[in-house]
Amino acid sequence: MADSVSGTTSSIVRGVEWSNWAGTESSRLARVATPRSEVEVVDEIRRAARKGLRVKAIGAGHSFTGAAVTDGLQLRLGALTGVTSIDSTRGEATVRAGTPLHVLSEELAAFGHALPNLGDIDRQSLAGATATGTHGTGLRLPGLSAGVRALRIVLADGSVVDCSRTREPDLFQAARLGLGALGVVTEITLGVVPAFLLHASERPERLSEVLAHAAASAEANDHFEFYWFPHTDRALTKRTNRVPEGTPRRPLRAWRERLDDDLLSNRVFELTNRVATRVPRSTRGINAVAARALSSRQYTDSSHRVFVTAREVRFVESEWAFPRAALGDVLQELREWIDTHDERISFPVECRVAAADDVWLSTAYEQESCYVAVHRYHRQPRGAYFDAFEAIAVNHRGRPHWGKLHTRDADYLRSVYPRFDDFVAVRDRVDPERRFANPYLDRVLGA
Length: 447
Prior knowledge:
The protein is α+β, with helices and mostly antiparallel strands. Helix content is 32%, strand content 27%. This is D-arabinono-1,4-lactone oxidase.
């Protein structure tokens, strides 16, 4: 159905059940709107205020936390998509906030540009990815939020504010990674670079050898990451580097891509996780086989095709950031816990690194960071695994990824984020009535 709102038309639905991608959060919504313009976003927020409804914007629903949960008005930004302008001289593109990252990459490529870095999943919307601190890997490259140069945001009173380092600088610093707590971002200007190719080298290695050389590998490569298979001493490493201009593309052969990424990493992985769920004692053997099934490979392709990996198997995840030097200790403590407890872990543990940045709520704020992420197949109980990992993380003064599972509250987060209170002060100013609040934000920021 459609409601006429101040001369605009916004697609409206009422009384809808919603759940996120992983199935970790769900709610019944009083109202759903799919605005097609910033004007419609403004009208919907003002209407929600008159009705006393809380408001949350939603992209792909890829956060594992309750960051986007509401029982009020859900604004689905899927119609606010596309690149609106590119300034090659300044190296920046202005993009509508609901644009999925995979769509953004393709649109930028059509104009000879690219994002300098990406995570390994690109289903998220741009606004959702920046709001929760999505990052890739690379010791000289920060996360997506650090690349934001300006943004437009609709506040709780319906006003639209342009922000940058020189215009509303405090609001800009907060809203670059705003958790959806400050308003609804409608447009983002971010840094881009000329399109480039990456050469990827993937190979299995022993975990002990990977950890012995992790610091050197991070420093020697543009991007370095690895996946450790619990219950084994095996890891799959990925080293990725830019190639000189003029280097030809040499993508994976179609059969190899289907074998590795479609069959082994998705279809067979789904099957083995189902087996491990029904017969937990089979997990060790499955991991031992899986750790050797993906053999060495090399390829050169467009950057966004190398950064991203198809992820069709559903999972739940917890990821924490630490000072880079803590990687070995954190992983060894996690390994010791797994080896001494009756838990069967069928998903690899993912490890990455990132540059320091100046984004107030970034997990890499003023520190070169390593990231350790643990996963569970979505059909499996989490058991004590996530709790044990969180205890290790807290002991190392880790910072939890805002879009992934954790139980920390405002008191802890204030202790690890030097600009936490500055963020809260901006929130108090622009949303004193907590129009954009929800239980997750009440916990992590305070009510």
